[in-house]
Amino acid sequence: MADGTVSYHCPNCGAPIYYKSEPAKFICDYCGSDFTVEEMDAYARKLEERRNSKEERTEAIQQNRQNQANETVHCYHCQNCGAQVVTTDTTSSTFCFYCHSPVVIESRLQGDFRPDQIMPFDISEEQAKKDFIAWAKTKKYLPDDFLSEAHLDKMTGMYIPYWYGDAKVNVHFEGNSSASQSWQQNNYRYTRTVDKHHVRQGHLSITDLSLQAFSQIDPNLLNGIEPFDSDAFIDFSMPLLQGYFAEQYTMPRNQAMQQMDREVDGASRALLRQSIEASNVQVDYEDYSGEKSDLRFSLLPVWVLTYNYKGKIYVYAMNGQSGRTFGEVPIVESKLKSDARKRGLIFGLIASAVVTALASFFFIF
Fold this sequence. Notes:
alpha+beta; 12-stranded mixed sheet; 3-stranded antiparallel sheet; 7 helices; 35% strand
């Protein structure tokens, strides 16, 4: 454990063990044993106490913080076969290339980098692949190997870092609006002007406001598979990472707090303006002050599949909790042009048949 990696094994037989969304337990494929999240979490904590001394943990945290500034490649050792495992700075959970055992880099999940909560996968890998096939079959002009087993095997379960927070805002707003209406009656033109004074004062609660904390994935892709049901969060348990990739946040906490402040301010102003049925409001006074909770470092489940076509990477993503999908597919131009030619030929044949029929019609009459 000198390099901070750990692989979790079945407490009964010692074989690698994985979390299965059905039946929401850790299942050992070798001996058939099953364990709840709570049981595996307790087992993992006992292992951690035996494996790490306080000095080793402190050294790992300090080393990780020193390396955080630069994106580099690190080598660790698989606890199952001893092979080197190569990762980037942000990877917290991965697989051994040689024996395919899951590897959790425990030293990167300490201190500020230990998540507060995690949302387990509800969608299994098998179901994710079936849903992808159904989604892809609605698309046209795809490469021949787009639905091949080799491509489907690249489906990857990832835990993506987010920041979650709550806010209580004290709102005080005062402003004025004026609306005029004119109409013509007989020889007179009338104008009615209504002046209103608007006052809003009260408390506003915003819960589970989220921010994407990982910059290596297109935010539009993640926006496309949101929302996630925050009721599905549970306290973080390290064994849940086993069998999936996991990343650290690239947006630090202080930057996230500033962004959260802007999000809360914008949401508060938008909600208040929605309560005023008037346009062109002249603001006399407004104040949005209150308390914001400490941010919760959270891991959310996402299935990701990529495809490289002519140098461009096409990415498909699925919400691992709800199954919502979003992605872009490549288009084979030769198939598109061939279909266009066929459609043009069919249209030409139909037009020719119509002209022939009309000619016959006029000949008869």
